[in-house]
Amino acid sequence: MLIQYKQYYLHQRPKGPTTDSDVKVRTVEVYSLAEGQLLIKNEYFSLDPAIRGWMDDVPSYMPPIVLGDVIRSSTVGTVVDSKHPDFSAGDMVYGLNGWEEYSLSDGYFLTKVPQDNQFPLHYYLSVFGAVGLTAYFGIHDTAELKAGDTLLMSAAAGAVGSLGGQLAKNMGCHVVGMAGTDDKCQWLMDDLGFDAVINYKTESGNLSAAIAAACPDGVDVYFDNVGGEILDAALLNINSNARIVFCGSISTYNASEPVPGPYNWWQVLAKSAVVKGFLVSNYFEQFETGAGALAQLLTEDKIQFKYEIVDGFDNTLTAFHKLFDGSNTGKLMLKV
Ligand SMILES: NC(=O)c1ccc[n+]([C@@H]2O[C@H](COP(=O)([O-])OP(=O)(O)OC[C@H]3O[C@@H](n4cnc5c(N)ncnc54)[C@H](OP(=O)(O)O)[C@@H]3O)[C@@H](O)[C@H]2O)c1
C-alpha cells in the first residue's frame, strides 16, 4: 500500500447546521497511482460558507456533493508522488480537492504555487484564492463602481467583505460596512479605513434607518454577502440605477425550510436597479492577473487582511460552524 489517510465524507444531507451525523470521517487506502494521477499532502484546506450549499441536493453552479463523496474544498499542499506529466514530487500546488489529509488528483483545476513565491502557503487559499479574487473582480468589474459612489458591504469584516471594502476605498468610494460585533466594526473603521459601520445585530429592527444614516447620499452599490433582512433593508436605501452584486446569502445556508423574501424586491423596479449574480469562477481566465494585482497591493501596504487558522484535522466541523455564528475573524482555514 502507498498510503492511508483520513477524509471527511457526506453521509447524509444536513437539515440546518452540519452535524457529525451528516459529515463523517473514514480512512482511505491508496495502493498505487494510475498513469496521470498524483498524490498531494494537504497542508491546509479551506472552510467556506459555499461548502454548506454544496451539501444540499439543489441545482447550483456546481453539482451537489454526492452522498458518500469527500467534502469538496480548496486545498494547498505538496505533491508527494506523481505519474502526471505536469507535476513532480516536491511541487507546491493548490486547487479544488477536499477535506482530507491527502488528495489523489488527476491534475484537474490544480495550479502550481509560483517557484518564486514569497508569501505563506495559505495565502493561496485566502487572499490569492477564491475569496481574494471574489473581492477583486466583484469590486473592480461586476460592481461598476466609480469614485464618489457609496458602497454598502455586508459581512464586511469577513474575508470577501473586508478586502472588497478596502479595494473600494482605494477607488475613492464612500464605504459602509455591516458586521455582527462592535470589535469587528471597530477594526473596519480604525484599521481598514471604512467611512462608517453598522453593527447589524444591535441595530436589528432599525436596519433601514441605520443604513440611511450611514449612507446620506443613498447606496449606489450594495455588495450582498448575506441576503435576508439585511438585503431587505439595503433595498430600501438604493439610489436610482443602483447595482446589487449578489455574491452570497449566508443568512440562508443553514435554513431547513425555503426562505421567503426578499420583501422589498419592488425597489429594484422602482429604482431601475440592476441585480448581478456574481460567480468568481466566471473570471477563471483572469485569476493570475487578479492574484498578481492583489500581491502588488499587499506589498505596497494598500490592503490588509485577517485570517484564522484552526489547527488539527479533527477540529474541522467545529471550525466550520464559526462561519455561521460569526466567531471567525477573517478567512477561515484548517491546518491539517
Ligand atoms: N459568488 C462567489 O463566487 C463567492 C465566492 C466566495 C465567497 N462567496 C460568498 O461570500 C460571502 C462571504 O464569504 P467569506 O468566505 O468571506 O466568509 P466570511 O465573511 O469570512 O465569514 C462569514 C461571515 O458571515 C457573517 N454571517 C454569518 N451568518 C450571518 C447572518 N445570518 N447574517 C449576516 N451575517 C452573517 C459572519 O460575520 P458577522 O460577525 O459579521 O455576522 C461570518 O463571520 C458568503 O456568502 C459566500 O458564500 C461567494
The SS-based structural class is alpha/beta
Largest sheet: 7 strands, mixed
Overall mean pLDDT score?
Answer: 97
| Helix residue percentage | 25-40%
The count of domains is 2
CATH superfamily of the largest domain: Medium-chain alcohol dehydrogenases, catalytic domain
The rounded distance between the terminal residues' Cα atoms is 22 Å
At the first level of CATH, the class of the largest domain is Alpha Beta
What is the CATH third-level topology name of the largest domain? Answer: Quinone Oxidoreductase, Chain A, domain 1
What does this structure look like?
- This protein has helices spanning 49-54, 130-142, 159-170, 182-190, 207-214, 228-235, 266-270, 287-299, 316-325, and strands at 3-10, 23-30, 38-46, 72-82, 92-98, 102-105, 110-112, 150-153, 174-179, 196-199, 219-224, 238-246, 274-277, 307-311, 331-335.
- The chain is of the alpha/beta class and 336 residues long.
- The protein folds into 2 domains: 3-126 and 306-335, Alpha-Beta Complex (Quinone Oxidoreductase, Chain A, domain 1), CATH 3.90.180; 130-281, NAD(P)-binding Rossmann-like Domain (Rossmann fold).
- Strands 3, 4, 5, 6, 7, 14 and 15 form a 7-stranded mixed β-sheet that branches. The chain has a 6-stranded parallel β-sheet with strand order 10-9-8-11-12-13, with helices on both faces. A two-stranded antiparallel ribbon has the order 1-2.
- The two termini are 22 Å apart.
- The structure holds NADP nicotinamide-adenine-dinucleotide phosphate.
- NADP nicotinamide-adenine-dinucleotide phosphate (NAP) binds next to helix 1, helix 2, helix 3 and helix 9.
